[in-house]
Amino acid sequence: MKKLLIASTALIATSSVVGADVVNGVGSSTVTLDGYGRFGLVHDEGFSSDDTRIEQRFRLNVSVLSVTDGGVEFGGRIRFQSDEGNNGGGVAQNSAAEFNVESGGFRLDVGNTSDVLDSGDVIDYFGNTGVGLTDFGEISSNFVLPVSGFGTSDPDDGEVIPTVKARYAVDAFTFAVSYQADSRDGVSYEEFQIGVGYQISDNLKVGFAYGEVQNVTGVNGLNSNLTDDAEFVAIGLHGSSGAFTYDLLIADIDIDGTDNVDTAFGIGLGYDISAATDIRFVVSDNGVDNNDTAYSLGFRHSLGGGVSLRGGVGEDDGGDTRADLGVRFDF
C-alpha cells in the first residue's frame, strides 16, 4: 500500500506539469500531450484474411517546446501508437524523435520529420475531405510519389532515415525544401523536394512541389512503388465556399525504365449538412496502368467534446469494395 501511495503521488505531481508552462526568466518550457483514438469495423474485399475486421488505433504525441529569452522556439516530438494490425498484436510502437527550431517565419525540422509533400506546408497532399473512419479514401490514395512523414515504425524496420526540412513563410507565400539521404545494405538513397504555396484568400490556397529521388530500389522497402531514379511535379488546390469544401491534386512522375505511369489526379468534395454533420466524396486515380479509378463516399457526425461518428464506402484502385464505420475521439 505504501508503494502504491508513493507511485500515485508521483503520478499526480508529474501530470500536473503536462500542458503547463514552466517559466524560467523570460523564456519558458512546455510539455503537451495530444492525439486521438478510434475503433470500429472495417470491410475490405482485398484484405488478405477476413473481409471484415475490428479496427482500432490509439495515438499519443508527446511534444516539448522551449523558448529562449530572445523568443527562439526549440521543440521536439515523439509518438506512441497502437494499431489493430501492427506487429505485437496491437502493442504500442514508438517513433524516432523529431526536432525543430522556429523564429519568425522560419522553421527548421530535423530527424524523424515529414518531407515537403507530407508536411502540408505548401500542398494539402492528403486533402481535407478524407472518407471513412480510417480515411481509406483520400485525393492521393495510392499515388506513386516518394512521400515520407513523421510516424511510428515496427521494430523490424530498423533505423528511420533522417530528414531535414526548412520552411519560410512571408506574407501569403510559403516556401519549403526537404532532403534525406542514407546508405544501407550497400544501396544509397537520396531524396530532394522543393515547393511553394500561395494563400490566395482566406478560403483558397494553391501549391506546387517538385522532387527527385535516386537509387530507391532495395532500401528496406522504402517507397517500394518506385524503381531506380525518378522525378515528379505536383499541383494542389484547397478551398471552401459556404457549406462546400473542395480539394484538387494533380501529379506527374517520371520513373526511369518505367512507362506504365500516367498523370495522377484526385478530387475531393465536402458539404456541411448541418453544424454537426457533413458528407464527403473522393475520386482518385493514381495513373498506374491497369489500376482502377478509386471512388468513396462517406460522412462525419460530431457528438461533441471532440468525439465523432465516421463511416464510408467505396471502391479502391484494385476494384475491391471497402467500407468502415466507427467512432473517433480527439484529445
TrEMBL record:
Pfam families: Porin_4. GO terms for molecular function: porin activity. Residues 1-20 form the signal peptide. Keywords: Signal. InterPro entries: Gram_neg_porin_domain (IPR033900), Porin_dom_sf (IPR023614). Residues 7-320 form the Porin domain. One of its GO terms (cellular component) is membrane. This is Porin domain-containing protein. It comes from Roseobacter cerasinus. The lineage of its organism: Bacteria, Pseudomonadati, Pseudomonadota, Alphaproteobacteria, Rhodobacterales.
